[in-house]
Amino acid sequence: MIEKLIRLENIGVFENALPNGRPIELARCIVIYGGNGRGKTTLSHLFRSLCTGDCNCLRPRATIGGSGTPSAKLRISGSCYLLNNYTWRPSRVDIEIYDADFVSRNVHSGSGVTAEHRSNLCRFVLGEKAVKLAEKVDSLNDEVKEAHKAITSVETALQSVVGKHMEIDQFLGLSDDPDIEANIIEAQKLVDAAADAADILEHPKLASIEIPRVPTATDVASLVETIEALSADVVAMVRQHMSEHLGDDSEAWLRTGVEYLEDDICPFCGQDTKGLRLLDAFRVYFGKAYEALVSRVETEAQALAKLYSELKLSNIRTALAENTTMREYWSKYATVEEAIPRTLGELDALWRQVTEKLLPLFAEKLGNPSEPVSFENPLSELGKLHAAAMTAVTSYNQRVDRINKAVAECKDKLSTGDADTHAVALRQLQLQKRRWEKGVAAQCKTVQQTRKLKKEREDAKETAKKNLEKHLREFAESYTETLNEFLTKCGVAFRIESIKPTFGGGDARSDYEIELFGKTFSASAKPSHEPHFDTALSEGDKRTLAFAFFLARMQRDADIKDKTVVLDDPVASLDHHRRWCTIETIVELSKKCGQLIVMTHDPHFACDTSETLTQAGMAKGGNLLTLALQRSGP
Questions:
Q1: pLDDT grade, residue 101 (50/70/90)?
Q2: Which domains does the chain have, with CATH numbers?
Q3: Is the pTM of this model over 0.70?
């Protein structure tokens, strides 16, 4: 309760409001009369600044030509409240104020009923609990808007990265692939290959190479053969003769010479050779068994020379060179990671062993066919070289197989997609790489986290909205009944049909409808050429409706007994009947609230209100005070 007005200076017309500077003791019920321009509205704003703690409304109301800033001192419930430099110390006193500002902020203004009106009215009507719920809805709605704004900002930046090729959600969902660089290279190759797809699809793969089998003892068996059918005397005689007269390598020469012996006549001197034991021994020695052995040696030599021919080695070398060229070709279009050698030294070593070590043994054998030639060491070394060559060839062919597999995959992809398909796949991989670049990844993380935050706030907001709706449903019926009781008492032609909260734009708003002459008009409906809310009610009806909202809230306020209620010109624009209804309501309100201050510019209303309060017993014990605002000086 405001108990005493101690000082009031430099506020509007109140340059020094107190007569002779004496404080004014106030009462539980106060009726203040003052003509227009006497400061009633100024007092309302003073009380509002004390209630809200916001003194900005006093700045434009500083006394014109005054010597200082607004200053006031009040005693409220035993404590002094000081206004100095547009700050109350302390502040926030429970005061409820009905004035023109209440009407224009909460119910109606010259522009009609706006969304802001309905939002403010919702807060006022629902009370402290609902106000907190509404504030929570508003706060969460602001957070949702801020999150949406932040998301939009970052998504716009990301859209410049993505372009028209991918949705943001799809971009955010791209995984971090450790093989992305290799995949991009492969995809780029497919894009490049698509332009020459026909030629590429016809291009051959790499060829595997083969080497001859390893020669065995069977292949060189003739090297150790002798002529078993000859007698020891014949063999001894021939070999003794060659040793004494011809040398160790003369057997082939003798064999050829024997072929020229015809009719027992020497092909050199023409003498008769009949009966010569040595020539007979030559004929026996170089007979059919000898010829058969020579034939076998020659056959094996030819077979081995064919098996390891220079042509075969040349063909292998050609295949190696062509494979190297082919690999370079396919590396432009397929994922070819394998390197292959242009030559294989193991093959050269193998061929040299055959041509330089093994084949000369046959020539040696043919020079002296009857003598065995040892081949164990060359053949053993050949086996080792063949094994090494086989290992090298196997490894080489395995690499070729892997390259050919990549080639086959490339051909399959080319045959199952066109250039556009491959270009899209490449672009997606490039975007996947961009998704996880440091700066872009940070933006994506921001979007994901902010989306999560937004979703949490939206869920919390939805819960708060449901709680607010539940709260309103619980009291809407009785609140509407209280409103209509006062409206009926005032004799208006309309009644409140319903009150319900809405959340257009996210803000909590009070949407209500009136019923007039059987038709319903919504306060939220937009003006039109047909009768609507703004045109259906007179100015007096609108003021009565505003006062009804205020009174209904006061009746439902559980803390009203501790509050000061200020009514500034509550009967403006009201007729005689409604004025008396208002007076009766004021008397009822005075019995419930902690303090009542009624201000009016109508002397008759001031007198009638004071008399009615007195008749109701409110003047007892000095609980009623009547004040008049007068201009001092000339």
A1: confident
A2: 1-94+559-634 (3.40.50.300), 199-416 (no CATH)
A3: no
